[in-house]
Design brief:
about 70 residues; mainly alpha
Length: about 70
């Protein structure tokens, strides 16, 4: 991910409207934003940032489990 995409993703991540749409995907606004996200580079970049966060969290949990087993 280049700098511009990361900047757009962070802007979308901090946007109140986008955050509301991600937290409430079943609402009309949430569905509209999901449709909008098919072509919006900021929404796509935010989704990629979120995937990276989840992968990092999984790696950390796995590492913690492995270190507990060694004790």
């Amino acid at each position: 991910m280049d700098r511009i995409e990361r900047f757009l993703g962070k802007a979308c991540d901090g946007c109140r409207l986008c955050r509301y749409a991600r937290n409430n995907p079943e609402t009309l606004f949430g569905r509209l934003m999901r449709w909008h996200g098919k072509w919006c580079p900021a929404w796509k970049a935010q989704q990629e940032i979120e995937r990276d966060r989840l992968e990092d969290a999984k790696r950390k949990r796995k590492f913690r489990k492995e270190t507990r087993k060694k004790r």
